[in-house]
Write a structure and sequence with these properties.
This protein is mainly alpha-helical. It folds into two domains: about 1-25; about 50-110, no CATH class. Helices cover about 40% and strands about 5% of the residues. The chain has a two-stranded antiparallel sheet with strand order 1-2. Helix 2 (about 65-80) runs antiparallel to helix 3 (about 95-110).
């Protein structure tokens, strides 16, 4: 956001630190703030309840092979678990194994749940 008086960039400031002009409040994005400052408004998410129900139906379907279910559960646990094959403190490489597994898991779920979505 830029100051209305001096035109300098002033991110998240109520008063411009350069010319001391009071700034208007920033525009709200996709909702509004409540009286306590908490976000009140619509939640925009890719994970819809229908997708979660489809995943639940997939797991409860007796025709789905147990190894596929085990792969999904194992991949989720590996991504969320703090111990990895490549530790996070190695720059960039620490995230590669999680990112590759996450991408593979998403592709697998889209292929498997395509008819259920």
């Amino acid at each position: 956001m830029k100051c209305t008086s001096c035109g300098r960039e002033v991110a998240l400031a109520e008063v411009c630190p350069y010319c001391w002009t009071k700034l208007p409040p920033p525009p709200e994005e996709n909702g509004r703030r409540g009286s306590e400052g908490e976000f009140v408004g619509p939640i925009h998410s890719e994970v819809k309840p229908s997708k979660l129900r489809a995943l639940l139906r997939y797991f409860l379907n007796p025709e789905v092979h147990w190894q596929k279910k085990l792969f999904i559960i194992g991949a989720i646990i590996y991504i969320l678990h703090p111990l990895d094959l490549i530790p996070f403190y190695i720059p960039l490489l620490g995230w590669v194994d999680d990112a590759v597994l996450f991408a593979f898991l998403l592709r697998f779920l889209r292929k498997e749940l395509g008819g259920l979505l």
